[in-house]
Fold this sequence. Notes:
The protein is mostly helical. It has one domain (17-85). Helices cover 52% and strands 6% of the residues. A hairpin with a 2-residue loop joins β1 (2-4) and β2. α1 (22-35) packs across α2 (53-69) and α1 crosses α3 (71-90). The longest helix is centred in the last third of the chain and has 20 residues, at 71-90.
Amino acid sequence: MNPIGNFELITIKIKNSSLVCPVENLWGYLVCGLNNARTAEGGRLHARDAANADELFNIVNQKWEEVKQDMNYLQSLVESMPRRLQAVIDAQGGWTKY
């Protein structure tokens, strides 16, 4: 370990970078939101229902705006980072529950 200011630098080969990347969880959350999306008539909305790329972009962008408003979820991702990193350290770069 190499000390850097108040931190210690450790080198671990991580087998799966998504272990320390909450963005993967964020993408999953967005996809779940898209999977549960409904049309104005109440029917299920699917990406293949978009008439063109612009419409698909609008569908995804609408869900993204909803995700950005879910501060509890976003805060939980930020707060999970110390646990994620510790889990990776404990697993010596191997798989974790994250």
